[in-house]
Design brief:
The structure holds two protein chains of two kinds. By secondary structure, chain A is mostly helical. Chain A has helices at residues 9-22, 38-66, 77-111, 120-139, 166-195, 208-240, 253-287, 294-308, 323-335, 337-353, 360-383, 385-391, 395-425, 431-457, 474-500, 541-544, 548-553, 591-607, 611-630, 659-688, 702-726, 730-753, 764-795, 805-830; strands spanning 568-572, 579-584, 640-644, 647-650. Chain A is globular. In chain B, strand 1 (111-118) and strand 2 form a beta hairpin. Classes of the chains: A mainly alpha, B alpha+beta. Chains A and B meet through helix 3, helix 9, helix 10, helix 11 and helix 12 of A and helix 1, helix 2, helix 3 and strand 9 of B. Chain B: Its main location: membrane.
């Protein structure tokens, strides 16, 4: 095509009309909330997370007021314990992590020149789950029923129902629900980064923010599931009296601490790296040059993620673990400072080499760097085990973690807010108010948290609702309290600035003269995301590629039209972003919202011990999921379509070329990680407690092997079904699927037979066997549903030998199911302490 | 960079004057706390230098004209300042700190003190080598100049045993026994406190620590081994009539029990209710009638039916247990 068809303005206008029509948001009082477009859902998500941040900030102000003077009695011990538990939990689970996901949902499609994320409805589901779970957890304090065991919820204080009430259940179940939504968002973001990049954007041309999203989402995938496993054991102990953490019956409170911190330490980097990612986008813009050391930054981010999983024991230096392991974990904790240093100095060197345009976002970036460096240096101190024995659980650590989280999460986010506000609203925020807010906050932060270093060294433990005058730390605490009010004033100024935004005029497009794709957004935003999907040849295409903006706007790149009236985006290959297919995206729908309500009801009803209703909620959730899935993976009306430049892309792919397959694979990685948390529990007892299982007869070897055989048969039959189906033997494949489902049912009941004669309330040995077996047979039950669903798809004509995504996806599930069955039945059969 | 100015002004002032002398990591009376303070001061000096250098560099970088450094020079800065120098400094720090991680050697002849954390008090048992053990509660006495081995556990939930002036903290975990080996150097009266959140009155779970010259300590321990010098009278009668002996043991007077704190030498302690109230008759009487007013969540039931006079009689009786 030499003379480009896109030269015709009438054609372009017609294309734009079609795109606008296809991407039109639903309207109406209720229907507008059924939108799934990332622009809308991302903004709701961000505002909700921001609201939770303000809420948790108010909780902190009440605490600071209580602690202003010694022996104060403004609030009771009971209220205070709820306040600090909720402050930490809300900031971590309802602000920091969701905020990253929210911002990423807004930015990622823009950064990648995609029309939307691959699973827009999944984002909407994640949002509604987050809203329901968040209101449930945060609202509990208004009923004096908030969790009060600290955000770390150490048993036995929190598992003994005589020592802790409903709050503990609200924490466990409410936040488990939110963890599910976090994992859902992580799946979405990983698939988005890997499969929805524009043609030509090889991995090493990706904007750094996308790299950080990938790294952080993978961390969520491996960090949250151990906590979910811990939550499961925890609630089994609270609701069913299975003694996982009860030392008197063979359990061990330390298992929870391990599972919690295997999650908890990566969590710190999960909330810190996205803010570094914002720096990585802002710094090149304000230095007006490429970022120095791109590959080093990528390696540093990956290295940080990797190391962060090896540090959790530094939260447990005072639990009496062997000293040699402390030395190892001290070293690992120090080591994580190195990649952080590389990232920070890459930013400084970039500013040094470039021409710095001073601006409000950059002010926030430098201020947060100053705060973060102080937090990082105290972090190096507490990583040294002997010093930690003094500092641990004192206000020194409170100071450290707030310097890190404010410098490493909050201030960068505020900087990002000033930077990206024009992208989202088309308007700039006030530079003047932004600066005023910054300086008030900056002084307030240091006045609040710096004295805490000293309060801690002077003997003030954390989580105390009061302290005696004789410690002579009243003046330090008074300074902290004054600082916290100053800090809050700064936040208030920032909120005022945001509130004034609707009265301001639109700013020009790309007001900071940035070089990355997201700044293609127009001040009057179109919902189609990007006019045409560009071919990428540079990390900063707006700066480097000739006539780039005009070409995108005139639809001269790919997919400039929506001829069939469908929402579409391009799928490319994982490593080098070669175009693979065009996928049809889900549009506005009530299904995500209804599914979130159904799933939420399971968690919330269980909290109140309404098990029967909760079970009904579970059935409803399953029904919703199947209803939702039924019109996915549809067979297109034609095999392929043109996307411009003479290229034709397939409209249907299955297996690893399809985003759906990746979503299944990644979800199952999370599932397997949660399961390995339970297996870790079994071997933790097995290795740490010499009397594990003593005096109990286990399931023996025969029963588990009898359960394993049909489970593996079910897997094999599914695998064979996939192969014969692909070769055109549809009837045979259907029969094999029926056989597979039957075998899974047999495996399910044979699995339950392993539990005969084992009472899980008596001792931890039968209890952990119960959990492993229940996990496995529940997966068998899901396998049955999947096999029958696939069968129904085949019978309904929604699957044929060339359109077999469903069958390929459930095969992925079956691989993981087989692995789970092998590990469970081998473990309980061959590794008992007695009975061999 | 305002924070750092505050840092430079406030910290030395406090290091010199120490805000308090009896519950501070900066005012050590034990060998381990002194070591850790030394380590802290070294790290503090390093941290101030590094923070200052980074701030100056940042300021310089932002003000430098375009192209002030080439790409190669920029990469060298990242390599040296971000990679090599931090690695060397951190390895040095780790090597320097490793000896501090080694446990203090302990001999079988050293005094053992078992301490159990309970909501919200401390059960203390002295186990001198080759002699009978002695029960006590909420106060710990140790000899100076001798190695002492604390054997730490917990009865109900996780607590943490922390005497800031003596050594770092060690958690007390149900089902486990952790060792903390220490040596006090300076005699005096100090204070320890629970450092792991343990429920409603976590903030109100402290204890007195008295470091004594060895000879004085030995004499004191011998005195503790004697049964209580209890007087008969109204207080003794009320103690039995109200069932106090169901939970509290007074050696030589009541049958042994381990539910509540041992009261054998109650009158010789300096504070009441686990380091919370001064040991006065009025406080003891008020605590007996309404313990939950002082300590929310306390296990001890309240005795509102006691009259003022009866409560005072009980207090007199208990304070007579020296």
């Amino acid at each position: 095509m030499s003379l480009h068809a896109q030269d015709d303005p009438a054609l372009r206008a017609a294309q734009e009309d079609r795109l606008r029509e296809v991407w039109k948001p639903p309207s109406g009082l209720f229907l507008r909330w059924t939108d799934t477009n990332n622009n809308r859902v991302g903004v709701w998500y961000t505002l909700t997370a921001f609201g939770f941040m303000l809420f948790a900030g108010v909780l902190a102000l009440i605490m600071r007021t209580q602690l202003a003077v010694p022996d104060n009695d403004l609030v009771s011990a009971n209220t205070f314990n709820q306040l600090f538990t909720l402050h930490g939990s809300v900031m971590m689970f309802l602000f920091a992590v969701p905020m990253f996901e929210a911002v990423s949902i807004i930015l990622l499609p823009q950064l990648l020149g995609a029309r939307d994320l691959p699973f827009p409805r999944l984002s909407a589901f994640g949002y509604w789950s987050f809203l329901i779970g968040g209101v449930f957890v945060a609202g509990s304090i208004f009923f004096n029923a908030a969790p009060d065991g600290g955000w770390f919820m150490y048993p036995p204080l929190t598992t003994r129902t005589d020592l802790s009430g409903l709050g503990a259940d609200i924490w466990m179940l409410g936040l488990s629900f939110i963890e599910v939504s976090s994992v859902a968002a992580a799946v979405e973001l990983i698939v988005g980064v890997l499969k929805c990049r524009p043609p030509g954007m090889r991995l090493n041309l990706m904007p750094l923010y996308a790299w950080y999203i990938l790294v952080v989402a993978v961390m969520i995938l491996f960090a949250f599931p151990p906590l979910i496993a811990g939550d499961l054991l925890f609630e089994m102990e609270r609701l069913l009296n299975w003694p996982f953490f009860d030392a008197a019956r063979g359990g061990d409170p330390l298992l929870w601490q391990h599972l919690f911190w295997i999650f908890g330490h990566p969590e710190v980097y999960i909330v810190f790296l996205p803010s570094i990612a914002l720096f990585a986008m802002m710094i090149p813009t304000f230095a007006q040059r490429h970022l120095l050391g791109y590959p080093w930054i990528v390696l540093a981010a990956v290295g940080t993620a990797f190391l962060s999983f090896g540090l959790w024991v530094h939260h447990m230096f005072a639990t009496g673990l062997p000293k040699i392991s402390l030395a190892f974990f001290s070293a690992a904790s120090e080591a994580v400072a190195i990649p952080t240093g590389v990232q920070i100095f890459a930013f400084i060197a970039t500013l040094w080499a470039g021409k710095v345009k001073w601006s409000t976002p950059l002010l926030y970036a430098s201020g947060s760097l100053a705060v973060f460096v102080i937090g990082g240096l105290t972090g190096v101190m507490v990583a040294i085990a002997p010093f930690d024995w003094q500092a641990h659980d004192t206000y020194f650590v409170v100071a450290h973690l707030h310097y890190v989280l404010i410098g490493g999460t909050l201030l960068p986010l505020f900087g990002g807010l000033y930077y990206y506000w024009p992208l989202i609203t088309g308007k700039k925020l006030s530079d003047r108010l932004g600066r005023i807010a910054f300086w008030i906050m900056f002084v307030g932060i240091n006045l609040t948290f710096f004295p805490m270093h000293l309060s801690g060294l002077e003997g003030m433990p954390r989580r105390v609702f009061t302290y005696p005058a004789e410690l002579n730390i009243g003046w330090l605490n008074l300074a902290s309290t004054a600082g916290s009010y100053l800090f809050a004033t700064g936040v208030l100024v920032l909120v005022v600035d945001l509130a004034l935004s609707p009265t301001r005029a639109k700013s020009p497009r790309n007001p900071w003269n940035a070089g990355t794709l997201e700044w293609l957004a127009l001040p009057d935003d179109e919902d189609w995301g990007i006019r045409s999907v560009p071919l990428i040849e540079s990390r900063y295409p707006i700066w480097d590629q000739k006539d780039f903006v005009a070409k995108v706007d005139e639809g001269r790149f790919f997919l400039p039209d929506a001829e069939e009236g469908r929402r579409e985006t391009i799928v490319t290959s994982v490593l080098d972003a070669k175009p693979v297919s065009v996928i049809r995206l889900g549009g506005p729908s009530v299904k995500p919202m209804i599914t979130a309500v159904a799933l939420g009801s399971v968690f919330i009803l269980t909290t109140y011990h309404l098990y029967l209703l909760a079970a009904l909620g579970g059935v409803a959730t399953l029904a919703c999921v199947l209803w939702w899935l039924w019109d996915t993976a549809e067979i297109p009306e034609k095999p392929e379509k043109p996307i411009g430049h003479g290229m034709h892309l397939s409209l249907y792919r299955s297996g690893p070329a399809a985003p759906g397959w990746w979503a299944m694979f990644i979800t199952m990685m999370a599932d397997a990680t949660a399961y390995s948390g339970l297996v870790f529990g079994y071997y933790f007892y097995w290795t740490v407690h010499p009397d594990f299982g003593e005096g109990f007869t286990g399931p023996g070897i025969a029963a588990p092997m009898i359960a394993l055989a049909p489970s593996l048969a079910s897997w094999a039959l599914t695998l064979i079904a996939r192969e014969v189906h692909a070769r055109g033997h549809v009837m045979l494949a259907r029969l094999l699927l029926i056989g597979g489902a039957a075998m899974a049912v047999v495996g399910l009941f044979a699995g339950l037979r392993c539990l005969d004669g084992l009472d899980p309330q008596v001792n931890v040995y039968p209890a952990i066997i119960w959990v492993l077996v229940i996990w496995t047979v529940a997966h068998a039950a899901v396998a049955v549903v999947m096999q029958l669903y696939t069968l129904a798809r085949s019978l309904a004509g929604k699957m044929d030998p060339t359109h077999d995504a469903d069958l390929r996806n459930i095969t992925v599930y079956m691989h993981f199911f087989a692995l789970t069955a092998i590990v469970t039945y081998m473990t309980i059969g061959w590794f008992p302490e007695t009975g061999l | 960079m305002r924070g750092k100015h505050v840092a430079i002004a406030v910290l030395p002032a406090c290091l010199l004057s120490a805000c308090n002398r009896h519950q501070s990591t900066l005012a050590p009376f034990g060998a381990d706390a002194a070591d850790i303070r030394h380590l802290f001061i070294i790290m503090l000096v390093g941290a101030v230098i590094i923070a200052g250098a980074v701030a100056l560099l940042m300021r310089h970088a932002v003000r430098a004209p375009e192209g002030a450094i080439s790409h190669q020079k920029g990469m060298r800065i990242v390599l040296w300042l971000g990679g090599i120098i931090p690695t060397v400094v951190l390895m040095g720090l780790l090597a320097y700190s490793l000896p501090y991680m080694r446990p203090r050697p302990v001999a079988p002849a050293d005094l053992q003190i078992a301490v159990d954390g309970e909501q919200f008090w401390w059960r203390v048992t002295y186990r001198p080598a080759g002699a009978t053990s002695v029960d006590s509660a909420n106060e710990i006495r140790i000899p100076t100049g001798r190695t002492v081995a604390f054997r730490l556990s917990a009865g109900d939930v996780v607590h943490s045993f922390w005497i800031p002036g003596l050594a770092g903290k060690m958690d007390m975990i149900p089902g486990r026994t952790n060792d903390l080996i220490v040596r006090a150097d300076k005699p005096g009266r100090y204070r320890g406190q629970c450092a792991e959140f343990c429920g409603l009155s976590h903030a109100l779970m402290a204890f007195d620590v008295i470091a004594m010259p060895p000879a004085a300590f030995d004499a004191w321990l011998a005195g503790q081994r004697r049964p209580a010098q209890a007087r008969d009278g109204e207080g003794a009668r009320l103690f039995a009539a109200n069932g106090c002996n169901g939970c509290h043991a007074i050696a030589g007077v009541t049958a042994p029990t381990r539910i509540g704190p041992d009261l054998t030498h109650f009158g010789s302690r300096r504070t009441l209710a686990a380091g919370i109230l001064p040991m006065t008759q009025a406080h003891v009487a008020a605590f007996i009638r309404h313990p939950e007013k002082t300590k929310p969540g306390v296990r001890m039931p309240s005795f509102p039916q006691l009259s003022d006079d009866q409560a005072l009689a009980l207090a007199r009786y208990l304070q007579g247990l020296k």
